[in-house]
Amino acid sequence: FITRLVGWLGGGFPPLGVFWNVGHSASMVVFALALRRLWIPGSPSIYGILIGLLFSLFPYHINLLAFQLQNPSMTMSYLTGAFALANCNRSGWRKWASVLALTASLSYQTMIAYFMAAALVLALILTYRHFQSAGTTRLAESFSPLGNYLQIIALGLAAYFGLALISLKLFAIEGSIRTEFASLDASQEKVQLLLNHLKRTAFGNEPSMVRSPKLLQSSLWAVVISGLSLNLLRRSKARSVAIVFIGLSILISIALVASAFLPTILMDHTSENPRNLLATVLLAAGLVALVSLSANRPMKIVAIALAGLLALSYALITNTLSVDLARLTTRDFLQ
Predict the structure, then answer these.
(1) C-beta separation of 284 from 54 below 8 A
(2) Burial class (CB in 10 A: 0-12, 13-18, 19+), 171
(3) Cβ-contact 190, 265 below 8 angstroms
(4) Is the pLDDT of residue 249 over 90?
């Protein structure tokens, strides 16, 4: 549908050129700002800037930009996904509009991983705020934003899979590895792929990501989580609260990185291509959101400096990859 619409408006196919790259980059920034609104509404703009930089400069994105055929659909998925994130806690028509927007964004299945990873970050943020309130806020009240968000995700996923099944049956479309769920026989292979993904993401030296930004991200994680845990320890005077928060942070961080692999686990199609693992960037973006919750000024300064250095590292890696890509494209053209 998007391809035909672009053609009707006068665009060519495949969608190459500066316009699509600029539009795609802008849509990434819009999506990142919607994440900030979901996680930390009303926070200082520095956190929105850092989240936007980390998200849009993430080196895995260069692989997506190189796959030019996906530019229009991924751009539309980011924009509709941003609308869903920004309005998921609204009521009335905005709530149902966000369900429709989320359903539309799932036309690019990688968005499932984004939405699940964003839910995990939101859960950790709300957990910290609840612990910080020292029991003065009811549990249901503390986690109501997460409940609203998960409701939108559930409705959007149900609508998406329902429409997909109806379309396959109605138009007699034959299933493929990209449209069918993985069988139970493939579960062992999928688990092994997931473990390899976790190991590679944490420690591996990849073509799209060297080890240095991973060390920076690990340092950022240690600074942020330890700083917030100390805040809880001072406020509640109970070690158990700080220990529980650290444990949850570890589990949620692992689950977040694993969620990026969710489409590959669920679907029969198996791919470890970087453009299918983009949701891993939400770990760094989520850490920046957590920084805003702390009242510890020295910790904030160190964390912001690490996040800025990480964004610079992303930018340098992305620039190197884009230059290499341009050279390969020129060589192929000359041949």
Answers:
(1) yes
(2) exposed
(3) yes
(4) yes
